[in-house]
Amino acid sequence: RAKEKGRNDFQIFNSDMKSISINRIKLENELRKALTNDEFTLYYQPQVDIESGRIVGTEALIRWNHPERGLVPPNQFIPFAEETGLIVPIGEWVLRAACKQNKAWQEQGFPAMPISVNLSMRQFFQHNLKGKISYVLEQTGLAPQYLELEITESMTMDVDHAIQSLLELKDLGVNVSIDDFGTGYSSLYFLKKFPIDKLKIDRSFVRDIMTDPNDAAIVATIIAMTHHLNLKVIAEGVETEDQLRFLHQNRCNEVQGYWFSPPVDARQMEVMLVGGSQAAAAKLEQ
Ligand code: C2E
Ligand code: MG
Ligand code: MG
Ligand code: MG
């Protein structure tokens, strides 16, 4: 009996493993096809100056326009792409598409502002990152000060590599921000040492600032610290008027979140760029 049961267990285990790996192979093939069939698309989320209420930047966020499954959010394929290495060509596509769009907006007469692009760990550790980014800027005609690269704290753990790469990016003239700040490996050493421009306070801290005194203290402290270090600071995931008021009182520079707008497609972004700054100013007046 035990033997029989054991055999069955093995078979179940075996067929599960098989279906998992079949799914993975399927997904990998689908992602490759998505690249050649141009199924990826970028959404854009405005970054708003808290004093003026004007849109001062946008973050490019990838979506996968899947032929059957519809619009697939990044959490459902970016971690897998990172694992398999497909993130490198996907990330390059994102970088090029974002630079191209930002240049097009400038040519259409919208106010020039930086576009933020999320860099993956593999991209950040890629050989000749500076050369690759500089090539994309050249191809798209976007000036480097209008590109901002978002990295996460985990990418700074190899301090020597991170400093070297960041100095190269600085030399190129692009901006660098630390995304999801506070959730990862936070060394105050790197804030002092690294040539970065901006901290993005993770939305997990912003979410409960009105109810959790610890989160309120953490957010206020991060903001105060950025001012002393001469860094810019943006709060992610701002959803309510109360959160906005708290951030304003604590002198946060910028906000990004559903309060102003979720990520939208390029056309909707253009509507906001035309009328949005006045609407935002009015909203802040209230
Ligand atoms: P992230 O870079 O921290 O981007 C912010 C995420 O928070 C976005 O999710 C955005 O839709 C969401 N968000 C913004 N405001 C609010 C809010 O007020 N409330 C809530 N609940 N959420 C808000 P999204 O677009 O699903 O992206 C998730 C993550 O996927 C990103 O987090 C980023 O880490 C990654 N990602 C997105 N695009 C790319 C890409 O092109 N390359 C790489 N490597 N990663 C990407
Ligand atoms: Mg980001
Ligand atoms: Mg992120
Ligand atoms: Mg973030």
From TrEMBL:
<protein>
    <submittedName>
        <fullName>EAL domain-containing protein</fullName>
    </submittedName>
</protein>
<feature type="domain" description="EAL">
    <location>
        <begin position="24"/>
        <end position="277"/>
    </location>
</feature>
